[in-house]
Amino acid sequence: MTPYLAAEDLSMFGRDPWWLVLVKAVFCFAFLMVTVLFSIVWERKVVAWMQLRIGPNRHGPWGMLQSLADGVKLMLKEDLIVKRADKVVYILAPIVAAIPAFMAIAVIPFGPAGNEISIFGHRTTMQLTDLPIAMLYILAVASVGIYGIVLAGWSSGSTYPLLGGLRSCAQMISYEIAMGASFASVFLYSGSMSTSTIVEQQHDRWYIILLPVSFLIYIITMVGETNRAPFDMPESEGDLVGGFNTEYSSIKFALFMLAEYVNMVTVSAVSTTLFLGGWRAPWPISTFWEGANHGWWPMLWFVVKVQLLLFFFIWLRGTLPRVRYDQLMKLGWKVLIPVSVVWLMLVATVRTLRNENYDFADIALYVGGGVLVLLLLSFAADIFRDKQGAQEAPAEPAAFDPMAGGFPVPPLPGQELPPVPRRRPRRERELIVSGGSDTASDGSNGGTRDGKEGSDG
């Protein structure tokens, strides 16, 4: 029986002096800030290119300093606090949203743990720290960040921000479950929750090839987690004015915007670490160049993969329209969660059979047979339900009340609107269009068009 858990060697972490830990923490913070500044300009440029516009081109060369100018503008704006707000929570909400967004980068590996680099004469790893439960740490800090949005909507003392905060809470609950299930598939294959160990386990094959369904589920859930289009329901300006941040301005509004883009970078880094080989060079390069995964080169491959995922965020925003809220919830609860749970059970079955030294052909036979049985049972259940529905008499459609609840409502499927009052019958309207008489004053019954009586001579 093959070993199930991967060997974890985290002894190289926790040995750095305090000043080196501080330098690495500042580097992680600077990496996120610079990436955010670049991503904002890149998003505006790419969307402008997709919409045949010019985009930012005034501040700096090619408009590259536009996001920096926007940050300075927000800093200098008047900072308002609405009268009905809970001031303490109102001020803390953007801080609660921003700080957890920076925390997850602490366990993301920028390079191999065994390839130490020299910083001011000290040998250290290209990762701030690592934990045996690093992925659980990432899930925990990502869940804390949602409190900032919920508290911002509640503390504003306004209706539309409250609706945006509630939407964000419901969206997080529905998409966090599917995200956790996609993570669990990676844990089963790697045998570890350590980020450095997960990347090491992808030395021969990336998990995007072994676990494609988990990758697709995570890609969808990470868009929902970051409240980005087409899942940007918490800040839907079409029906919520501006969403949870409607009553915010100046630096507090900038913190919400910063948290959104930092979360984009964080989830892209997590996706790169779990499914795209992390800091490893792509396949054609790693085969003919032995030094591609040594020195400072791994950081380049990591940054390139993160930027490609950020481009995916931008492409979605410029391509897909915003979904309705019921579609958002239906996708999360009725599609993503069942698919992720079934896929997790399938992965667990395959891993168990592999640990029992079954051949690949036997595993494919057992798994394929199980899937076939499930499909046959589902097909039989559908046929039985259709026959039972056909035997039942069709129920009469419920009468439609356009003023149900005291306000006008649209008709449901199967209901019809009542006839409009004071409207001519269809035959009379056809006579009018074809030149027939409309009223007694149009010349019929001896009358003339000007209302005067006709003469005989």
UniProtKB/TrEMBL annotation:
One of its GO terms (cellular component) is plasma membrane. The keyword Ion transport does not apply. It is found in: Cell membrane; Membrane. The chain crosses the membrane at residues 18-42, 88-111, 131-154, 175-194, 206-224, 253-279, 299-319, 331-351, 363-384. It is a multi-pass membrane protein. It is an enzyme of class 7 (translocase). Its main location: membrane. GO terms for molecular function: NADH dehydrogenase activity; oxidoreductase activity, acting on NAD(P)H, quinone or similar compound as acceptor; quinone binding. Belongs to the complex I subunit 1 family. NDH-1 shuttles electrons from NADH, via FMN and iron-sulfur (Fe-S) centers, to quinones in the respiratory chain. The immediate electron acceptor for the enzyme in this species is believed to be ubiquinone. Couples the redox reaction to proton translocation (for every two electrons transferred, four hydrogen ions are translocated across the cytoplasmic membrane), and thus conserves the redox energy in a proton gradient. This subunit may bind ubiquinone. NDH-1 is composed of 14 different subunits. Subunits NuoA, H, J, K, L, M, N constitute the membrane sector of the complex. This is NADH-quinone oxidoreductase subunit H. It comes from Streptomyces olivochromogenes.
